Amino acid sequence: MDPASDGEPVVGAAAFTPPHLVVLSGMPQAAAAALGAELGAGPDPLPGVIGSDPASAAFAGAWSRATGRPARADRREHVLRLDGPAVPNARPAPSGRSRAARAEESELLTDWCLEAAHGARLSREIARRSVQGQIAGGLLRVWEDGGQPLAVVGRTAAVAGVVRYNPAYSRPEARRGGYVRALLAEAVAELRADGLIGLAVVGEANTAVRGLFESLGFRRVGGLSEYRFD
Asked: What is the CATH number of the domain that holds 192?
């Protein structure tokens, strides 16, 4: 907090649920560094931190200085946002159809969710709960052709007018078939019709998925960095 502020005194927030990473909201670098130093001097061992690029770097540096232990940059992601007109999908729809995911597909779609989140160290139990919740809420769509599921796109329920897309995945032998693009274009059209804002968080190395979102009108608005404490 900044008690001297003429406006809102709260400048940032952090959450830590062991054994998971410390999660930072956007905040000034000085606030993130002060928090890193304070938690570094405390009794709780921290596995790492994730947050906006400058905040997480400041937190990790201060934590490392306070503990004398190294902080290792582990993963970086791009934050993409769609809050204006969507770009129409100029490609013809592939063969097959879009449909809601089914409860009996939850294990297969959990596999796909884990593959889409490669590098994020997502546990199977958390991925399964997420998939089951999306299926129950009608938030997970599958592209099917010839009775075979080929791709999936999911989203969260809207919170404060914002929807986050995850996962977006196509089985390897079906890639470049336009299935994820067709699902995402359908989802984005619904999003804009409802006046909502879309977000996606995509790993820096996943240039194909990032390019797909950008081709439909998403733009990069920031980055997230993850540091692991050895």
From this structure: 3.40.630.30
